[in-house]
Write a structure and sequence with these properties.
27% strand, 4 helices, UDP N-Acetylglucosamine Acyltransferase, domain 1, transferase
Length: 186
């Protein structure tokens, strides 16, 4: 079945209009949630986890996101057990974002599934689309890194601080730089 609503198109990764009124309720809901979450920096980890469970698709035991935190919808984010995100992270979750068990993410990291057409006529129509991001288990992402749409990062990988990840990272690999390149041991 072909998606017909803007939300169905967004969730399927098809071109959609991001500021369509159909998505207003979802935007207001997550904005109100972020206001509550980000205003409560003194909450305990279990209290934070309970708030995360209100907004996200899945929240494994022992997850902790230090506020401030920002996202597009929340309901496309799945966190494994023991996931940690430091201050000021942003997840643009127009489609699915999965983060595996025990992954640690530094401050100011941006995880962005939202993408835009390369065709200027489509951009003038304010169209965008999403490509899912999957981050494996026991991954370490350094502060200020950017993970671009469609990237998969394998288990036990390391992403250096400030790196811009434009391609998949193999399990156990280390990438650094802009664009991030695989670092060869030795």
């Amino acid at each position: 079945m072909t998606p017909t609503s803007q939300k169905q198109k967004m969730l399927s990764g098809a071109l959609y209009v991001a500021d369509d009124p159909e998505l207003d309720d979802d935007n207001r809901r997550i904005s109100a949630w972020m206001d509550r979450y980000n205003a409560r920096s003194t909450l305990t980890q279990p209290e934070r986890q309970a708030l995360l469970a209100e907004a996200f698709a899945r929240v494994g035991e022992g997850c902790n996101i230090r506020p401030p935190f920002f996202c597009d919808y929340g309901y496309n984010i799945s966190l494994g057990r023991g996931v940690f995100l430091n201050f000021n992270c942003c997840i643009l979750d127009v489609v699915q974002v999965t983060i595996g068990d025990m992954t640690q993410i530094g401050p100011g990291v941006q995880i962005m599934t939202a993408d835009h057409p390369r065709d200027p006529a489509q951009r003038r129509q304010m169209l965008e689309f999403g490509r899912p991001i999957a981050i494996g288990a026991n991954v370490w992402i350094g502060g200020g890194a950017q993970i671009l749409p469609g990237v998969t990062i394998g288990d036990d990988a390391i992403v250096g601080a400030g790196s811009v990840v434009t391609r998949d990272v193999p399990a156990g690999g280390t990438v650094v730089g802009n664009p991030a390149r695989l670092r060869v041991p030795g």
